[in-house]
From TrEMBL:
The keyword Repeat applies. GO terms for molecular function: beta-catenin binding; cadherin binding; calcium ion binding. Cadherins are calcium-dependent cell adhesion proteins. They preferentially interact with themselves in a homophilic manner in connecting cells; cadherins may thus contribute to the sorting of heterogeneous cell types. May act as a negative regulator of neural cell growth. It comes from the Eukaryota. It is found in: Cell membrane; Cytoplasm. One of its GO terms (biological process) is cell migration. This is Cadherin-13. One of its GO terms (cellular component) is cell surface. Residues 1-16 form the signal peptide. It comes from Asarcornis scutulata.
């Protein structure tokens, strides 16, 4: 009332402005609004007598009488933070806001409304512009433009004009609001959307004819009043919750919350939740409850009804509704589906389908011999169903292993070490089964969680076995043909069968060996050569067969490794065998010779290099040792262009030593302009001389 009087005083002598004479009302929060008791008086004037005046209130718990009195329709303890009142007559309509505040908030709110410090609203002494806040409902229908308020100037100046600026006028989004520059009427040009822009802060100025500002600027606040034009939205789906079977009543499963784009301070965004449908409806059509305000879904049945193994399905689907306007019939509704899965706990022990299983296996064979089957009522997708098998007795040699088939949950019993019929023809195993997950405390494994497996071993004809295998022997290479290398020994593991064994050669790469088929004596049929390509790292390998007299016969394979000791049976070889030199060379070191030997040390280096006797009155070259394997040939003078054969002997260190007499071919070439010409003029210069000398020597001997 104080605010109303103050506004009327400030607007004294001003023309009538259609609409609420006060746009924002403040009331102090009481303990409770009492039914039919006036809360405050709202003053609306359309300046034409208020014919056919009607009021609408945003909160259905309140109404406005024809005289403007705001009253509660019932006792209300909580009305929210704001009410909106819409008034409409034949000639005008307007919106007012009623803010519910505490006592301390009220003083601050009045100060804000008057804008005393901000030069807004009620003018100061030096201000002549009155720009009261304007409230506009969103989603208004045409026609547009529509008058929504008026700016008043108490001091009249001839030729003065109003000018409006700000976001929504000359700033994006442009052209929403405009002002009559003469009358000050503010109009909106199109429907507003509060969810896009909720408030506009504009400025009003007064200018003279030249455009010079003579008053202002004063802030004009325009607020968009929310309408319930947005349905609630479930944004976070899919919604899936889990609850353990046997959970206590009241166990929280999940929370479902929706979003409403309307004003959160109004009932337009006040949501309430409920369960519309539950599928399936057994064992109870009301397995769950949702908190209407928070959206928490909880169990409401006893733990015994949450038994996964007795349910039609462990999955429930709830259709959840969210309605605004606090759940009233006028509210907008949206739905979403919540999927609730009843999780399994290990409350059933696995049990073998029978107490005893039978298996038969041939001796010497490995692999799966029998599948053990179990039953378990728990969820196959969990560790409460998956089985773990253990052999608890009858496997001292660790010949058996058992593993779980991940698809069937069966126990696959396997032989991992070949069984021997001659040692034991029967085996008895005791096997237990458990789950990957531990059982719940009130459940224990019983006698059905153990089973016996009887295994029968079948006798088969096994091949003879060489002892040892592989067999090794050391022999010198080049031993005489017919020499005995080794006598092999093979036995038949089928001790209960009386069988004979015969021997044969299986693989003899070089064809050097033979074997006596009866007693297994191996002898040589050719010279053993350590330097043969069939010998690797001084070892020659051959394979032999031992064949029993069974039906069908069985075969065993034995490997023989012969280590061959080296004998000095290879002369050293010389390299290179050709050298070239210029006839005018200053460096007379012709070539570095090297020697190699196929034998092993000590039948190789150090090598001895020597020149054979040189003919003629002068010596033409010499050879000198560099190291154990190399020597250098040096010319003692320049030679004419020709081909020369230099006789050289190289001897190894074996006992007895072996010597290789060979010739080094030396080409003496003419060298001009970095080109070497070795065309063969006088090609056998030294060789012909040697031939003539030899003929002369023979002639002399004949003559004598």
């Amino acid at each position: 009332l104080f605010l109303q009087v103050l506004l009327l005083a400030c607007a004294e002598d001003l023309e009538c402005i259609p609409g609420f004479q006060q746009k924002v009302f403040y009331i102090e929060q009481p303990f409770e609004f009492t039914e039919d008791q006036p809360v405050l008086n709202l003053v609306f004037d359309d300046c034409e007598g208020n014919n056919k005046l009607n009021f609408e209130v945003s909160n259905p718990d309140f109404k406005v009488e024809h005289d403007g009195s705001l009253v509660a329709l019932k006792n209300v303890s909580e009305a929210g933070r704001a009410l909106f009142v819409h008034a409409r007559s034949e000639h005008a309509e307007d919106m007012a806001e009623v803010l519910i505040v505490g006592a301390n908030e009220k003083r601050g709110a009045l100060k804000e409304i008057f804008k005393i410090e901000s030069n807004l609203g009620i003018p100061r002494q030096k201000r002549a512009i009155l720009a009261t806040p304007i409230l506009i409902p969103e989603n208004q229908r045409p026609p547009f433009p529509r008058s929504v308020g008026k700016v008043i100037r108490s001091e009249g100046t001839e030729g003065a004009k109003f000018r409006l600026s700000g976001k929504g006028v000359d700033q994006d989004p442009k052209g929403i609001f405009r002002i009559n520059e003469i009358s000050g009427d503010v109009s909106v040009t199109r429907a507003l959307d509060r969810e896009a822009i909720a408030n506009y802060e504009l400025e009003v100025e007064v200018t003279d004819l030249s455009g010079k500002v003579i008053d202002g600027p004063v802030r004009l606040d325009i607020s968009v009043i929310d309408q319930n034009d947005n349905r609630p939205m479930f944004k976070e789906g899919p919604y899936v919750g889990h609850v353990m079977e046997g959970s206590p009543t009241g166990t929280t499963v999940m929370r479902m919350t929706a979003f409403d784009a309307d004003d959160s301070s109004t009932d337009n965004a006040l949501l309430r939740y409920n369960i519309i449908k539950q599928t399936p409806t057994k064992p109870s059509p009301n397995m769950f409850y949702i908190d209407p305000e928070k959206g928490d879904i909880v169990t409401v049945v006893s733990p015994s009804m949450l038994d996964r193994e007795t349910m039609e399905t462990p999955k429930y689907e709830l259709v959840i509704g969210a309605k605004d306007m606090g759940g009233l019939d006028v509210g907008l509704t949206e739905t979403a589906t919540a999927t609730i899965l009843i999780d399994d706990k290990n409350d059933h022990a696995p049990e073998f389908t029978k107490k005893e299983f039978q298996a038969t296996v041939k001796e010497g064979v490995t692999g799966v011999i029998v599948n053990l089957t179990v039953g378990d009522r728990d969820d196959p997708a969990t560790g409460a169903w998956r089985a773990v098998y253990t052999i608890i007795n009858g496997n001292p040699g660790q010949s058996f292993e058992i593993h779980t088939n991940p698809e069937t949950n069966e126990g696959m019993l396997s032989v991992v070490k070949p069984l021997d019929y001659e040692i034991s023809a029967f085996h008895t195993l005791l096997i237990k089964v458990e789950n990957e997950d531990p059982l719940v405390p009130e459940i224990a494994y019983g006698p059905s969680s153990t089973a016996t497996v009887q295994i029968t071993v079948k006798d088969v004809n096994e091949g003879p076995v060489f002892h040892p295998n592989p067999m090794t022997v050391t022999k010198q290479e080049n031993i005489p043909i017919g020499s005995i290398v080794l006598t092999v020994n093979a036995t038949d593991p089928d001790t209960l069968q009386h069988q004979t064994i015969r021997y044969s050669v299986y693989k003899d790469p070089a064809g050097w060996l033979e074997i006596n088929p009866t007693n297994g004596t191996i002898g040589t049929t050719a010279i053993l050569d350590r330097e043969s390509p069939y010998v690797q790292d001084n070892i020659y390998t051959a394979l032999f067969l031992a064949i029993d007299s069974g039906n069908p016969p069985a075969t065993g394979t034995g490997t023989l490794h012969i280590t061959l000791e080296d004998v000095n049976d290879n002369v050293p070889s010389l390299y290179p065998t050709l050298a070239k030199v210029c006839d005018d060379a200053k460096d007379l070191r012709v070539v570095v010779l090297g020697a190699s030997d196929k034998d092993l040390h000590p039948n190789t280096d150090p090598f001895k290099f020597e020149l054979s006797k040189q003919s003629g009155p002068e010596k033409l070259w010499r050879i000198s040792k560099i190291n154990n394997t190399h020597a250098q040939v040096v010319l003692l003078q320049n030679l004419k262009k020709a081909n020369y054969n230099i006789p050289i002997s190289v001897t190894d260190s074996g006992k007895p030593p072996l010597t290789n007499n060979t010739e080094l071919k030396l080409q003496v070439c003419s060298c001009k302009k970095s080109r070497m010409d070795c065309s063969a003029t006088d090609s056998l210069h030294i060789s012909m001389t040697l031939i003539l000398l030899s003929l002369f020597s023979l002639f002399c001997k004949s003559f004598l």
